[in-house]
Design brief:
Family: Belongs to the GHMP kinase family. IspE subfamily.
CATH architecture of the largest domain: 2-Layer Sandwich
Oligomer: single chain
Largest sheet: 7 strands, mixed
Mean pLDDT: 96
Shape: globular
Low-confidence stretches: none
Strand content: 25-35%
Pfam families: GHMP_kinases_C, GHMP_kinases_N
Distance between the termini: 18 Å
Number of domains: 2
Order of helices and strands: EEEEHEHHHEEEHHHHEEHE
InterPro entries: GHMP_kinase_C_dom, GHMP_kinase_C_sf, GHMP_kinase_N_dom, IspE, Ribosomal_Su5_D2-typ_SF, Ribsml_uS5_D2-typ_fold_subgr
Keywords: ATP-binding, Isoprene biosynthesis, Kinase, Nucleotide-binding, Transferase
Pathway: Isoprenoid biosynthesis; isopentenyl diphosphate biosynthesis via DXP pathway; isopentenyl diphosphate from 1-deoxy-D-xylulose 5-phosphate: step 3/6
Radius of gyration: 18 Å
């Protein structure tokens, strides 16, 4: 038996840091969406549990127990085998949840392959704050340390561009550089009739990690400026803790034109055009 699972890029349209717990974990309030670009996992029945990584972004990705995919598999308990192939297209440590989305896709795929229920919420959260939100990709509001997830608004049609300049920004360093850790929460997302009205509302919100990340990696500011300068861009912002940034457009056609222009002008950058992605529920 073989199962395929898609691990879409996660985009934090907003990211408000609203507090810090006594154990050091930061409290977040974020509107999360997913893009139809990402990694792909193929999981096949096997005697042993193995991981093979291929694809254009495979270099440097561990294939041992350090990889979140194998950590996810371990949540089902010992003694189970699967041959897992990870086709890697998303940059690592980039603020778009590549590793977390891979882990969530592995959980979905292995549950199907082995005929098991998903591990409990506490176990899933132990893999990382972004893993729970990646389990069922769709517009979601994520609060707390990643455990408080509620439905997000229905999205209008739009195009997206993702850009990573090829620098890794360590998440702990970004949080350490944050001036305030008790910022206002995000108001309830109202829903929007168009990409333009959505971008206008998002423009009144924040990614509180953008300024500290930019201080550590000034090229992030260059990327945001380059995206904002493309024709039809409605909003340009950093996702997560960086360094990937995104642009919102009225259509995929506009996003693809912008992505082409950005790639030509900056051949060293990773650039992808996309649309929002929602995982269709599995058929009973």
């Amino acid at each position: 038996m073989t199962v395929e699972a898609f691990a879409p890029a996660k985009i934090n349209l907003t990211l408000h840091v609203t507090g810090q717990r006594a154990d050091g974990y930061h409290l977040l309030d974020s509107l999360v969406v997913f893009a139809d670009c990402g990694d792909r996992l193929t999981l096949a029945s096997a005697d042993d549990l193995t991981l093979r990584v291929t694809g254009p972004r495979a270099e440097g990705v561990p294939t041992d127990g350090r990889n979140l995919v194998l950590k996810a598999a371990a949540l089902f308990g010992p003694g189970r085998g699967a041959a897992i192939a990870l086709d890697k297209h998303l940059p690592a440590a980039a603020g778009i949840g590549g590793g977390s989305s891979d882990a969530a896709a592995a959980l979905r795929g292995l549950a199907q392959l082995w005929g098991l229920a998903l591990p409990d919420a506490r176990a899933v959260l132990s893999l990382g704050a972004d893993v729970p939100v990646c389990l069922a990709p769709r517009p979601l509001r994520m609060r707390g340390v990643g455990e408080d997830i509620t439905e997000g608004p229905r999205l209008p049609a739009m195009g997206l561009v993702l850009v990573n300049p090829g620098v890794e920004v360590p998440t702990p360093a970004v949080f350490k550089a944050l001036d305030r850790k008790d910022n206002p929460a995000m108001p309830h997302p109202p829903g929007w009739a168009s990409a333009a009205t959505m971008a206008h509302w998002l423009g009144t919100q924040r990614n509180d990690l953008e300024a500290p990340a930019m201080a550590l990696a000034p090229v992030i500011g260059t990327v945001i400026g380059a995206i904002a300068a493309t024709q039809g861009c409605l909003l340009a912002r950093m996702s997560g803790s960086g360094a990937t940034c995104f642009g919102i457009y009225e259509s995929r056609t506009e996003a693809e034109a912008a992505a082409t222009a950005l790639s030509v002008a900056n051949p060293g950058w990773w650039v992808a055009a996309a649309e929002p992605f929602t995982l269709k529920p599995a058929r009973a």
